[in-house]
From TrEMBL:
This is Cytochrome b561-like protein. The keyword Metal-binding does not apply. Its main location: membrane. Residues 10-194 form the Cytochrome b561 bacterial/Ni-hydrogenase domain. It comes from Hoeflea marina. The keyword Cell membrane applies.
């Protein structure tokens, strides 16, 4: 009998960063629906403070995601996540889009593949979006600490943060919905990405 190590598809660092960032995003979106923004000399309420501090955590989680992506030896490559500077990779994304459209016309989903061009590119855009939101929120927080919230730069930063918030909602809902559909209709296991195991050994002859 030989012992064979079975590793999850994604590194532990990637899964931890994904869980941390996803949790922070959900808390951010939830708090944004009920918090009271600062108005003139009136500060924001406690939910606004929660929103700000969770935003700082989100920036750390996003930074950790970038580090994990740069250091990992398995998982989706950076070229698949960000194909926009390669004509061949953009062509692969377009081909994958057509495959998805043909499947949807037949009321089916294509089999899930971790390195599928379309899914990978969407994940890359999602990471860029979440990083942008965390960064703009942190810039506003720093401006607030320095009484600079009325400066042209910080006001523009705040407007960009609020404008792209709707895209975060769309991405989160779409991402979660497709993940659940693939979990039940395809070969994707949601438990794998949310697992904290390092791997397991399996005996074989």
């Amino acid at each position: 009998m030989a012992t064979q190590s079975i590793s999850p598809k994604h590194t532990l660092a990637t899964r931890l960063a994904h869980a941390s960032l996803a949790t922070a995003i959900i808390l951010q979106l939830a708090s944004s629906q009920f918090m009271r923004h600062p108005r003139g000399a009136t500060p924001g309420d406690w939910l606004f403070s929660v929103h700000e501090y969770v935003g700082l955590f989100a920036l750390l989680a996003a930074f950790g995601f970038w580090l994990a992506m740069a250091a990992r030896r398995r998982g989706i490559s950076a070229g698949l996540l960000f194909p926009w500077l390669s004509g061949s990779r953009i062509g692969a994304v377009w081909t994958d889009i057509k495959i998805h459209l043909r499947s949807l016309m037949k009321l089916r989903l294509p089999p899930y593949e971790d390195d599928a061009p379309l899914a990978s590119a969407v994940h890359g855009l999602g990471l860029l979006l979440m990083t942008f939101m965390a960064l703009t929120g942190t810039i506003y927080f720093i401006g607030e600490l320095n009484d600079a919230t009325q400066s042209a730069f910080v006001r523009l930063d705040k407007e960009a943060h609020e404008l792209f918030a709707n895209l975060v909602w769309a991405y989160l809902i779409g991402h979660a919905a497709l993940a659940v559909l693939h979990h039940y209709l395809s070969n994707l296991s949601l438990g794998e990405m949310w697992s904290l195991r390092r791997g397991q050994n399996q005996e074989s002859e």
